[in-house]
Amino acid sequence: MRLWSLRPSILDRTGLVACWREGLLAQRVLTGTTVGYKRHPQLERFQAVADPLDAIGHYLLALHAEALVRGYSFDGTKVMRPDAANPGIPVTTGQLAFELTHLRAKAAVRDASWLPRLPAVALPAPSFVEMPGGIQSWERGAVDP
Hints:
- The model has no long low-confidence stretch (mean pLDDT 93).
- The protein is mostly helical.
- The protein has one domain.
- Helix 1 (13-31) runs antiparallel to helix 3.
- The protein has helices at residues 13-31, 44-47, 52-70, 93-110; strands spanning 89-92, 128-131.
């Protein structure tokens, strides 16, 4: 599961579509309507806020908005909290940089023509608030320099 902290507008097609599907799965996990992924590290940041369903709802709405801009047909009725307020989930500069590097590597394989659209500096998705720091503890398989 990859719930990108990056602004949805920089995700390539495959990244945006996969993030939407995985965000919907995360919403199911947070409602307790699935048996898998209950302890997935990517969910920790959503579970840490006062209202996790609002947090994932806001996150999904940003993905949906980007899909509409691109002419994709994501079903917005699947978002359980379409009126969710911005949860202001903290994300570190190190995490954003890690994810941008990860996205570059993925895009180089999936769609190299997308690479020029990636920014030099990562910007957070609307549900997140950037703060100083390294790669976050919930990120698996990363080494923080």
